Amino acid sequence: MPENYFARLISETPTRMWVNNPTASEIRQAIANGAVGCTTNPAFAGGLVKRAPQEVQGDIAAAVATESNDDRAAELIQQRLVARILPPFEELFKSSGGRLGFVSIQGPPAEDSDPAAILAAAHTARSIGANCIPKIPATKPGLEAFEVLVAEGHPTLVTEVFSLAQVIEACERYERVSLSTGVRPEFIMAPITGIFGDHLRKIASRDGLDVDQADIEWAGVAFSRAAVRLVADRRYPVTLLFGGARTTLDLVGLVGSQHQATINWSTFAEVIALDPPIVSTVSEPVPVVVLEHLSTTFDDFRRALLLDGLSLDEFEAFGPVQQFRDNFVEGWNRLLVAIRDQRAARAVPLATGTAAN
């Protein structure tokens, strides 16, 4: 492993890294720099259409040739892409006793409100490979599916987490099901950092608010540090996996505890280039003036940090959850366009001969 920030992170702290939505070359580079897992989301294939079309074109053509439904074709493409990521992480999965080396996959965003569809997508994920972990939303329908998965003994990654109320609800459900069944599968939860900031910027722009952008960058980190304290105080049996990084603060501001974080390869590269010192930051207080400013300016931020700031029925419509979903829908739709383009290309008749002399 190269001697850089991530080598020091591994040797000096229990914090570990995953890579998010990578290309083939980024997978290799991330593993070389200590990545212990890989996250993908519904925007994964659509992102490759834009960034590395050569890596997904064959899968699009194969899916179009065998599947007439565009959404089903998109699901098959995502599954094939994830299946190719599993082998590089299999040895780590085995050597860690099934605690590391996971690759996540999430179902279509249009089905996020249907617990049966979420559960079906999770079962499909588990059929792809032993180290394929289903990723489901921390919403009412998602948590209904989560309880079934826990009872069945499936490792699960709960995502779209933007409030302490969601953390509590998911962890309490896990403990209740595991207590009644005696089953305790690997449970990972992803508080989302940078996307929270994206959501607040959107509100500030919409409402003409005068907000320091440096303060907004603290939003996801402040929430994530609060989640770390909550999990530690209540001794919840969950591994936190911070996601949605937008700046290096989303990584270096959450170092020191036995959690994990998933970042794009571009963030790996940025941190390697900056080469900051290893500093344990996850337990540090967020500047009080920043917390007060964000709490008084943004109701969504204030509610996110309250233990009872959201009811179960409010999880799905919470602003940052919808912001995250919008990204998924955009990426999924980009893949659907590529699928339709491929169908149109297949429908064009080829020339069968040349004119006679």
What would you say this structure looks like, in words?
There is one protein chain. With 357 residues, this protein is of the alpha/beta class. The chain has a single domain, classed as TIM Barrel (Alpha-Beta Barrel). It is 56% helix and 10% strand. The protein has helices spanning 5-12, 24-32, 44-51, 57-66, 70-95, 115-128, 140-152, 164-181, 194-207, 213-216, 219-234, 249-252, 265-274, 288-297, 299-304, 319-347; strands spanning 16-20, 38-39, 103-105, 132-137, 156-161, 187-191, 239-242, 260-263. Strands 2-1-8-7-6-5-4-3 form an eight-stranded parallel β-sheet. The model is unreliable at 351-357 (pLDDT under 50).
Give the secondary structure arrangement, pairings included.
Blueprint: H1 5-12, E1 16-20, H2 24-32, E2 38-39, H3 44-51, H4 57-66, H5 70-95, E3 103-105, H6 115-128, E4 132-137, H7 140-152, E5 156-161, H8 164-181, E6 187-191, H9 194-207, H10 213-216, H11 219-234, E7 239-242, H12 249-252, E8 260-263, H13 265-274, H14 288-297, H15 299-304, H16 319-347
Parallel strand pairs: 1-2, 1-8, 3-4, 4-5, 5-6, 6-7, 7-8
Helix pairs in contact: 3-16, 4-5, 4-16, 5-16, 6-7, 7-8, 9-16
